[in-house]
Every structure is written in structure tokens, then in C-alpha cells.
Automatic annotation (TrEMBL):
Location relative to the cell: Nucleus
InterPro entries per the UniProt record, alphabetical: TF_fung, XnlR_reg_dom, Zn2-C6_fun-type_DNA-bd_sf, Zn2Cys6_DnaBD
GO cellular component, one term: nucleus
Protein name: Zn(2)-C6 fungal-type domain-containing protein
Coiled coil: none
GO biological process: DNA-templated transcription
GO molecular function: DNA binding; DNA-binding transcription factor activity, RNA polymerase II-specific; zinc ion binding
Protein's organism: Hyaloscypha variabilis (strain UAMH 11265 / GT02V1 / F) (Meliniomyces variabilis)
Record-annotated Zn(2)-C6 fungal-type domain positions: 12-42
Keyword tags: Metal-binding, Nucleus, Transcription, Transcription regulation
């Protein structure tokens, strides 16, 4: 008794009681909570209900509902129902299946503690000097998330499909690290890892007819889980990576303004973590322990820059980023070294390296994004220059972007890796279209009306015709490489802007000239967008916009 009074708590902590684990009862924190670096609560309050509690309650509800319905009603399915919950076997005397019990949304908010040190923002100098560590999130994984993820086998299947598809065009995760994390139970690995697995399941999912992508059960659960983690003060790389996947899902499935806002969130969160290369940043993650960890942080920041830039295309509301990569910044290493974790095999190129220096597909995508940034600065920047200087700068940008586009296309052909390089190629096409569009005045919005503008307009229109023709060839490559429906899973939503830009250009050219060749090219792109719409709904939205434009042109021509 005397020993318990000094070094032992009278009962198990709340986390161990919930997980039905043996608790050491040591004060001020039990061994498990100390190892997990989470808050240890020895209060007498009843622990929040576990998944077993909910399953027992579900069974009782099923029996009660069956009695009330007399076995003759077909209850409406819950929007959070999962295969495991909707196919639960029932005895014959219970009537038809009833929807799985969904815990009230208020339950996960009970007992959330935010232990993020406010000093990190109120006085960052003292935060750094004091060596204060940001606690790991201690939030329990919501029941709906656990049910959607399934068992270890289901999670492993999700990871495998993710790395076979999405990872090919957005390789920001270390597969070795994720595999290593799978060795521990999900609740011990942490809620942020559970969120990442959930977002992997989200991004590999396909849209379903009759269900809005914003109402997808996995999407709804992911957004709720993110909000819960934010409330707990979570500051981890895994949470940022998960949100990058959410932003791609929202962009690919045309969920606005959510996609625009999530992309901006990723920029701010990356700045907070200190992975943006700014030596004055908070650096909440601390020092890296391995080369793989350093490379993953860098790739994650590139992922932030890429999604933020792509999501802003077409809205003409691009916010110029003061964190544009500098010439002495490093590009991601080649994919072979990254996948194997072999530092000695890594080829490290710089942002300012000539494009003739060989790099692999993801560094090429980064270079394409940098080139697009230069064009956006040229189009939307406030720098005042003469008309001659402006046109000279535009011509130089067109030459550089065209050279990069040819370089990437040649490498894709040489390596026979169309899917790996498709995103980078498409970004260069979008860049050229964005540059030329501002000078071509197809919509009566010329950048300049001076004496040289007519000559520049002619060059811009010819540039649009050239790049649009090249995009038609790109469309033919897409069709040739996607003979089966599952092949669409390897296509990135990043390519849609380029396809739409070319289609819009051809729609305008058909209106101006009525040329059958232009109409044939337009129809070819429309067919491809319709095909891609089965995987990414932003393709279907672009197609809908095109059809509305053609209707408007037809009405205008008739009048």
C-alpha cells in the first residue's frame, strides 16, 4: 500500500482502460504513454467508448429496430456505412439488414486536449533556445476511421495500390518508412498515420454515379479527422502529407472552393513545420536523423508547391509565392535512389542546373512547375517595363518552356515511361498556353495595345496553334496507353488543364474559321476528357464547360 501511494496510481490510465491493455500505473505517466509521448490521464472519468462498445450497441440497435419495423421496412442507408458494417450477418428472425450505427459526431470532440506550446508563435526565439518539443497528438482514432480502414490486410492493400498508381506521379512518401510503421498496431503508431492511410484510401478511390465526391464517406471522415487533429494541436509531417492527398482529391474531383483552400493550408502548414528551407522558420520537426528523412521532407515541400500551383490554374487568382525555389536549391534525387534508400546512388541536381543535365520524372515535374512560376510572375507581376522588354521576356520564356517540353518528351520516349513523365509534360503545355493566351487576345483581353502588340499577337496565336497540335498528339498517347479501364488509375489529374486549354483553343479556332481539321482535333480531346471523367471528375467538368462554350458560340453565330 505504501509503495502504491508513492509511485503507483490507484487505477489504470484512461488510454490503457480504453485499449484494454495492462497499465503499469506509474506516476506521472504509465510506461506505454511515456513511450508514445502522449498525455497520461488517471482521472476516474469513464473512458470514451471503444469500437467493441459500439459493435455491442449496434447489435442491440439492430434488434430493437427490427422489432419496431416488424421486419417490413428498409431503413435508409447511413452515409458512413462501410462494406464491413453493411454486410454484417444477421439471424433470420431479425428481418432485413439495418444501417450500421454511426456514433454521434459530438463524441470525438469530448476530452480533446491541445498541448501545442503557444510560445512557438508568441516568441519563437525563446522557443528555439529553450529546446521545447511539440508533443505528439494524443487524439484517439475515431471509430468511423477505424472501420473505413479495415484490418491490417486491408490497409496493406490500400498502400500497395497507392504506390502502384498515385505514387508514380507524386512520389513524396518513403515506402520503406510506411512499411516499417505497419509493424506496430495502428493506435500505437499514432492518429496522424491513421489519417495518412485514410487519405491514401481516399485518393485511390473512384467517383461513383449518383454520389457527389464531396459526400464520399472516406472524404467526409478524412475532413472531420483533420479538424479533430487540428484541434489537438497536431504538428507532424504525416498530417501535411495527408492534406496534400486531400488537396489532390479535391482538385481531381473538382471540389471547390475546398481544393483552393486546402492547397493554401498546405503552404502555411509547411511553413510552420519548417520544411520550406527558410532558416528562420520554426522548425517544429527538429533535426533529421537520416538521409531518407531529409529527402522526404524536401519532396513533401515540393509536393506543396506543385499542388498549390496546379490548383490555382484557370482561376486567374494566383497568389504570387514569395518562396519560389532559388537556383542553389536542390531538386529531388533520382527515383531509383529514393525508392531503395541508397544515398550513394543519388544524383543531386540544383534548381539552376541546365535542363540538359539528366534527371528523372519527379525532378522534371519540379522544373516544369518552376517554369510555370516564371510565366505566372511575368503575367501577373507588377513590375513595370517597356513594351519591347515585355515582349522580349515573353519570347525568351516561350523558347525556354518549349525546350524543356521537348527535353521531357524525349526522355519519356527513351525510357518508355509515359505515365511517369505525363504530368511534367502536361505542365509545360499548360505553361505555354498560359503564356501565349495573354498575348493572343482571343477574348479581347490583350496585355498591350502598343505598336508592337499586333506582331506579338500573331506570334502568340501561332504559338497556341503549335502547342495545341502537340497536345492532340499527347491525347493520342493517353488513348494508346489506357486500353483498359484500370489504366486510368495511373493518370494524374494534373494533365487536365493542358487538355482543356487545347480544346478551348480549338473551339475558338473552329468558331473563327470553321476548319474541319480544328473540329476533328476538338472532338478528339473531348472524347479523351469523357474517358478520363470516369476517374477524375474535373475532366467531366472541363467537358461540361466546353459544351457550354460551343452552345454559346452556336447561338452567337445563328444570331
Amino acid at each position: 500500500m505504501h509503495e502504491m501511494g508513492i509511485g503507483k496510481a490507484p487505477q489504470a490510465c484512461m488510454s490503457c482502460r480504453k485499449q484494454k491493455r495492462k497499465c503499469s500505473k506509474t506516476l506521472p505517466a504509465c510506461d506505454l504513454c511515456q513511450r508514445m509521448n502522449r498525455h497520461c490521464d488517471y482521472s476516474n472519468a469513464a473512458p470514451p467508448p471503444s469500437s467493441d462498445d459500439f459493435n455491442a450497441l449496434r447489435q442491440k440497435l439492430m434488434e430493437l429496430e427490427s422489432r419496431l419495423n416488424g421486419g417490413g421496412m428498409n431503413p435508409q442507408m447511413s452515409p458512413y456505412a462501410t462494406p464491413s458494417s453493411t454486410t454484417m450477418p444477421t439471424s433470420d428472425n431479425l428481418g432485413p439488414p439495418v444501417p450500421a450505427y454511426t456514433p454521434p459526431q459530438e463524441v470525438p470532440w469530448q476530452g480533446i486536449q491541445n498541448r501545442f506550446p503557444a510560445i512557438a508563435f508568441l516568441d519563437s526565439d525563446n522557443f528555439k533556445v529553450g529546446g521545447i518539443v511539440v508533443p505528439k497528438p494524443s487524439l484517439e482514432i475515431p471509430v468511423d476511421v477505424l472501420e473505413l480502414l479495415g484490418d491490417a490486410g486491408a490497409i496493406q492493400a490500400t498502400i500497395s495500390e497507392y504506390f502502384a498508381t498515385i505514387h508514380k506521379w507524386m512520389p513524396i512518401f518513403s515506402q520503406k518508412r510506411l512499411t516499417r510503421n505497419m509493424a506496430n498496431p495502428l493506435w500505437e503508431a499514432g492518429p496522424d498515420l491513421a489519417l495518412l492511410f485514410l487519405c491514401m484510401k481516399l485518393i485511390i478511390s473512384r467517383p461513383h454515379d449518383g454520389i457527389q465526391s464531396s459526400q464520399h464517406p472516406v472524404y467526409v471522415s478524412a475532413k472531420r479527422f483533420i479538424t479533430l487533429l487540428e484541434a489537438s494541436g497536431a504538428a507532424t509531417l504525416l498530417m501535411l502529407q495527408a492534406n496534400i492527398l486531400v488537396a489532390w482529391y479535391e482538385y481531381g474531383q473538382a471540389i471547390y472552393p475546398a481544393a483552393y483552400m486546402t492547397a493554401g493550408w498546405c503552404v502555411r502548414y509547411g511553413n510552420m513545420l519548417g520544411i520550406n528551407g527558410n532558416k528562420h522558420a520554426l522548425d517544429l520537426l527538429g533535426r533529421v536523423g537520416t538521409w531518407t528523412e531529409q529527402e522526404e521532407r524536401q519532396r513533401t515541400w515540393w509536393g506543396v508547391l506543385i499542388v498549390n500551383r496546379i490548383v490555382s490554374l484557370g482561376s486567374q487568382s494566383y497568389v504570387l509565392n514569395s518562396q519560389e525555389p532559388k537556383n542553389d536549391d536542390t531538386l529531388p534525387v533520382n527515383e531509383a535512389a529514393w525508392e531503395t534508400g541508397e544515398m550513394t546512388a543519388a544524383r543531386q541536381a540544383l534548381v539552376g542546373s541546365p535542363i540538359s543535365e539528366p534527371v528523372t520524372s519527379f525532378p522534371r515535374l519540379c522544373q516544369a512547375i518552376i517554369m510555370m512560376g516564371k510565366v505566372l510572375v511575368h503575367n501577373y507581376g507588377d513590375e513595370i517595363v517597356t513594351e519591347t522588354e515585355q515582349f522580349t521576356a515573353a519570347s525568351n520564356l516561350y523558347t525556354d518552356a518549349s525546350a524543356l517540353s521537348r527535353q521531357i518528351s524525349e526522355e519519356a520516349d527513351a525510357e518508355q515511361d509515359f505515365f511517369g513523365y505525363a504530368s511534367a509534360i502536361a505542365v509545360t503545355y499548360s505553361t505555354l498556353c498560359t503564356l501565349c493566351d495573354g498575348y493572343s487576345c482571343p477574348k479581347g483581353t490583350c496585355k498591350s495595345t502598343g505598336k508592337e502588340s499586333s506582331s506579338m499577337q500573331i506570334q502568340a496565336i501561332e504559338g497556341l496553334k503549335t502547342v495545341s497540335s502537340t497536345i492532340v498528339n499527347f491525347v493520342n498517347h493517353i488513348n494508346a496507353n489506357t486500353p483498359l479501364g484500370q489504366d486510368l488509375d495511373r493518370i494524374s489529374p494534373i494533365i487536365m488543364d493542358a487538355l482543356y486549354s487545347a480544346a478551348a483553343n480549338y473551339a475558338w479556332m473552329v468558331r473563327e474559321s470553321g476548319d474541319d481539321v480544328y473540329q476533328s482535333s476538338l472532338d478528339n480531346i473531348r472524347l479523351c476528357l469523357r474517358k478520363l471523367g470516369a476517374r477524375w471528375r474535373n475532366a467531366a467538368e472541363y467537358l461540361r464547360i466546353l459544351e457550354a462554350q460551343e452552345f454559346s458560340y452556336a447561338i452567337g453565330g445563328a444570331s
